[in-house]
Specification:
globular, four-stranded parallel sheet, Rossmann fold, alpha/beta, Arsenate-mycothiol transferase ArsC2, Ptyr_pPase
């Protein structure tokens, strides 16, 4: 089973969604983790839109990448540019794959209503789901996957 870390800036939204989708869709082939180069707590909108899709991420928690220093990952997927630029070195032979997604909180800042804000989270949630559905095959390709 492949050990995959989804790494983001604050481990509050995109990386949490990716971990949730991997656990939901790929638990037979991927042991999923998420972390951040900082910790910002769980984003309640991310939790809500994942629940709408039938994926419960309430048992996950925001953690700093250092908390997983003893885990030997096969792959580290950076889901934002900041995480890619700040990506630490990992034990073993972890291959780093950069697959950025838009930041839902940033997109939602301009929203005129709560529903409009949530639509940004839903769009990114679905993009992450579609990407995770291609795993692990997409990881075993030549790096960046679009």
């Amino acid at each position: 089973m492949l050990k995959v870390l989804f790494l983001c800036t604050g481990n509050s939204c995109r990386s949490q969604m990716a971990e949730g989708w991997a656990r939901h869709l790929k638990s037979d082939s991927i042991e999923a983790y998420s972390a951040g180069v900082a910790t910002h707590g769980m984003n309640p909108h991310a939790v809500a839109v994942m629940a709408e899709a039938g994926v419960d991420i309430t048992r996950q928690h925001s953690k700093h990448v250092d908390a997983l220093a003893d885990v030997e990952f096969d792959y580290v997927v950076t889901v934002c540019d900041n995480a890619a630029e700040s990506c630490p070195t990992f034990r073993g032979a972890a291959k780093v794959v950069h697959r950025p997604f838009d930041d839902p909180p940033r997109l939602a800042r301009e929203a005129a209503s709560e529903d409009e804000a949530l639509s940004s989270y839903r769009r990114v949630r679905d993009e992450i789901r579609d990407y995770v559905a291609t795993l692990p095959q997409a990881l075993e390709g030549d790096g960046d996957v679009e």
